[in-house]
Amino acid sequence: MRHTATLACFFSLLIAVSPILAFDIEDERTFDVPNPSSTLHILSNTDLDYFAPLIHAYQEQQSSIKVIYTVASSKELYNAIYNDAAQFDLVISSAMDLQVKLVNDGLTSGYRSDQTDSMPEWAKWRNHLFAFTQEPAVLVASKKGIGDFQVPENRQELISLLRDNPEQFNGKIGTYDLRQSGAGYLFATQDARQSDAFWRLAEVMGSLNPKLYCCSSDMLNEVETGEIAFAYNVVGSYASANLNEESNAFIVPLSDYTHFMLRTALIPAAANNAKLGGQFIDFLVDKKARSLIENQAGLPPIDGEALSQHQYFRPISLGPGLLVYLDKIKRKHFLEQWSDAMVR
Q1: Which residue segment(s) compose the domain that 248 sits in?
Q2: Core-most of 40, 102, 172, 341, by most CB within 10 Å?
Q3: For the chain, what is the domain count?
Q4: Per-residue pLDDT tens over the stretch 151-188
Q5: Contacts of 204 (CB under 8 A, 6+ apart)
Q6: CA-to-CA distance for 130 and 78, rounded, in angstroms?
């Protein structure tokens, strides 16, 4: 009996101090400190390699806070909060539309501070959702893969290059699998709203046996090796962090338009320690943190002036407009249309 009671106490304690993970996680790390006073639980779709330096910098300021950082895909992250009410103190995601839906459907807690009040209005929404990076969706090309062909400067030139040279690019095109990737779905729906060229490009890519991926890192690896010639709609910050002059892969600026997503943070309504979540938001959005975000994490911090430098930059706006393609009927129709074009 005593043994049974001890086990019961142990499992009760385990449940009390740790979120129940009823979803697929990709990675997790505990950032321990001596004699921690509190534990901050973060759920994110940002790779650990990029975010670890920010957590270390945060702990230099808050030396008694232990951090448990859990990585999941944007879709799994959304389901964990929306369907399972997973008890994380902070949620960070690049899937702006899914983040907006969490706020819109009442699954988050509001937060205000001097730091959030000083943010530009375009970088926050309803005092529930806070952006700390602005990252382009880019085309990445392989030097080996494109050979002597001229590098396309816009989507129409890319369409023409692929359509006119099927023998060169068959099986050599990569992009997100929209059925798996929240960020990929966001980029694709924004493409469709921006220009009819998206569907023409999808048809051409689909005729060339494209490779579909869950995430930017896998696409980048295969462009680098020459396995594919082009990767479409890669998160630009990941590309910039992984490529250099010696790389086989390089970023192709497209002059018709470039979408910028905002990586955002929110506090779930089910958070065990919303105060710690707010404290970390303050750390991320403080103007002093922008150099840390850029130089240590390799992510571009919010900067309205940088977004205004080129007329073809198209920042994606936070707000209810992002909910349009999350409507079940519209989403089903969009994915069916995309699958008809891309999955053969």
Answers
A1: 135-260+325-342
A2: 40
A3: 2
A4: 999 999 999 999 999 999 999 999 999 998 888 999 99
A5: 159, 162, 163
A6: 16
